[in-house]
Amino acid sequence: MTLRHFLRDDDLSAEEQALVLARAAELKAAPLSRQSLAGPQVVSVVFDKPTLRTQVSFTGAIAQLGGHPLVVDGALAQIGVRESVADTARVLGRQSAAIVWRTYGQDRIEEMAAFAGVPVVNALTDDFHPCQILADLLTVNERKGVLAGLTLAYVGDGANNMAHSYLLGCALAGMHVRVGTPASHQPQAAVLARAEEIAAEQGGSVAVLDDAGAAVAGADVVVTDTWVSMGMEAQKGERQGSASPFVPFAVTESLMARADPDAIFLHCLPAYRGFEVEAAVIDGPQSVVWDEAENRLHAQKALLSFLVEESA
Ligand code: CP
């Protein structure tokens, strides 16, 4: 057995991603059918940044797997300030079956994984939000019945964690991923190169476009995210103002009309109506955002059970 972590989307192979998504669907149909954390075993869930969905869904997921969720307020723990990430990892790892962490730098969660001795799950960093993509893929598969070959268009901030995770996670699923973003907000070159490599292996494709209409044209799935990611609050005025470079990338009804007529709309939430998405879209008939939010629970149950069982 090998200790397994989920720090970024490509920590799962394409086959493992498919297995986790299939298990998520099974657990959605039979919520208590897998007791991977029976005991109850403790899972530490640590938040250095705000959360609603991630806290609720991991808490429920761990409980329904027979475990005990221990939510740790990062403001109290002060990881990296009060004590090092490595020492925190050693302490949590001795008392937890797994560690789930929402934090800032990817280097922090990589250090946690290096010293914890138990599976570590990225519940959002500045660079990736891989648990969200599992939930999104589950949602798309429920609506479309397939993932490989579909076109997903993400429009907005191409340099943020959601853009990076869509590139990797959807490429793994064999999808065609288009990122529509201003030239000033490109994805990290290394992430884009890795996504291109995965897409070539899985039969999908990756494209970054600076024209929202071209990105969305004919797409099966349209997604966006807030223009003000956590940690960027000081830039809120310029990112949401009328001169923001993201304004042409807002998901309006007219942009949505460029997609396939049966396209669905996703948003990881929280959403800011009138900025990255029009109310008529997120509250309209093509929106599946409430299914998507619920699917965090099912996807994370499947992921945790997979990681814990693989690492045992
Ligand atoms: N989508 C998501 O991660 O939601 P929270 O920030 O509320 O956890």
Structural description of this entry:
With 312 residues, the chain is an alpha/beta fold. Helix content is 44%, strand content 14%. The chain is built from 13 helices and 9 strands. It has helices at residues 14-29, 53-64, 74-77, 85-95, 106-116, 130-144, 161-172, 189-202, 212-216, 236-240, 253-256, 279-282, 289-311, and strands at residues 42-47, 68-73, 98-102, 120-122, 151-155, 176-180, 205-209, 221-224, 264-267. The chain has a 5-stranded parallel sheet. Strands 2-1-3-4 form a 4-stranded parallel sheet, with helices on both faces. Helix 5 links the parallel strand 3 (98-102) and strand 4 (120-122). It is globular and about 50 Å long. The mean pLDDT is 97. Phosphoric acid mono(formamide)ester is lined by residues 51-54, 124, 132, 268-269. The site of phosphoric acid mono(formamide)ester (CP) has 8 residues, from helix 2.
Question: Which secondary structure elements does this structure contain, and how are they paired or packed?
Answer:
Elements: H1 14-29, E1 42-47, H2 53-64, E2 68-73, H3 74-77, H4 85-95, E3 98-102, H5 106-116, E4 120-122, H6 130-144, E5 151-155, H7 161-172, E6 176-180, H8 189-202, E7 205-209, H9 212-216, E8 221-224, H10 236-240, H11 253-256, E9 264-267, H12 279-282, H13 289-311
Parallel strand pairs: 1-2, 1-3, 3-4, 5-6, 5-8, 6-7, 8-9
Helix pairs in contact: 1-6, 1-13, 2-13, 4-5, 6-7, 6-13, 7-8
What is this structure, in a nutshell?
This protein has 312 residues and is of the alpha/beta class.
Which structural class fits the helix and strand makeup? alpha/beta
Shape: globular
Cα gyration radius (Å): 19 Å
Main sheet attributes: strand count, strand direction, barrel closure: 5 strands, parallel
Q: Uncertain regions: pLDDT < 50 for 5+ in a row?
A: none
Strand order of the largest sheet: 7-6-5-8-9
Order of helices and strands: HEHEHHEHEHEHEHEHEHHEHH
Number of strand elements? 9
Q: How helical, in percent, are the residues?
A: 40-55%
Strand content: 5-15%
Number of helices: 13
What distance separates the N and C termini? 6 Å
